Fold:
Amino acid sequence: MACQPEEEDASSRMEKTLKPVRNISTPSALAARRRHILDRVMVDYYGAETPLQSLASISATSSTTLTIDAFDKGSIKDIERALMKSDLGMMPNSDGVVIRLTVPQLTTERRKELSKQAKALAEEGRVACRNVRRDVIDKVKKQEKAAELGKDMGKDLQDKISKLTEKYVSVVDKACEEKEKDIMTV
Structure:
């Protein structure tokens, strides 16, 4: 049946348009990215300036906390000193085993900005889905014209593609609403 390749192609292309919407940065995802702010921190380790990533593992334990776990527990004081000297504006809290950095909360203004970005990405996703629909329907119409596809079969396929588009547009809308809710949650 000639319908299947077009329908599968449309479905896979529309699925690809969802990735950017699903990957919208939320505050919890931003914390994971914030660990990269420590990339430029250099620690004086046995007289040599060493990048922090070489001396410890850095992880985001929550949306506001970065945890630094030193490979060599004897270097914790050196890492603390380097963090205090850095221009990060965060005070390290150490319990002798791990160091915790509290990352400041997002401001309301920044949350609104992220929400706008989410809406813009969602709109791009909806437009991309509609563009896929237009491309596939044009392809079906060309096949109808070339008599490779019957009119009834072409109409059925166009209906299926339109329903598929509606489905993916609603998925984009739902993902955007969820991301927006997560962003605006304090």
Notes: The longest helix spans residues 108-145. The mean pLDDT is 84. The helical segments are 3-22, 27-34, 52-55, 76-85, 108-145, 151-184. The chain is about 60% helix and 15% strand.
